[in-house]
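Researcher: Here's a chain I'd like modeled. Treat it as a single chain, no partners, no ligands.
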Amino acid sequence: MTKNTICLWYEHDAEAAAGFYAKTFPDSAVTAVHRAPSDFPGGKAGQVLTVEFTVCGVACMGLNGGTAFQQSEAFSFQIATDDQAETDRYWNAIVGNGGVESACGWCKDKWGLSWQITPRVLTEAMAKGGDVAKRAFAAMMEMRKIDVAKIEAAVRGEASA
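Model: Modeled as a single isolated chain. Structure tokens:
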């Protein structure tokens, strides 16, 4: 086990969530599934209690803890993308698998976990600061899924189409 692992709370389907992440994102895998040795709040002996997995190389553990806690936007995975095709692929995988769109490149998967699908062109524009960042930020504020071409146009100072 790594020194620092992100623990994510699921009602009862951490294994399904981890499997989805493993097939959707590179450098991701389900590495272990552990069953409960006895009954626990929200589950019975023998049911999956925890799932160890990675998402883009980040160590995670899914805990099937029942309904006591819910996911919130206070935690999200931010996935950097290189182009529109990669942005579309991840966004469509999450939203198309029972997820929900939100604003500014955010979406939620069907388990309630928030994701930021963020093209590098946006991050780089924000890092430049000044007018470039202002224009990119203004363009982003009108989007759900990030449109790379519109961010690039904003960076160049061109009016969006």
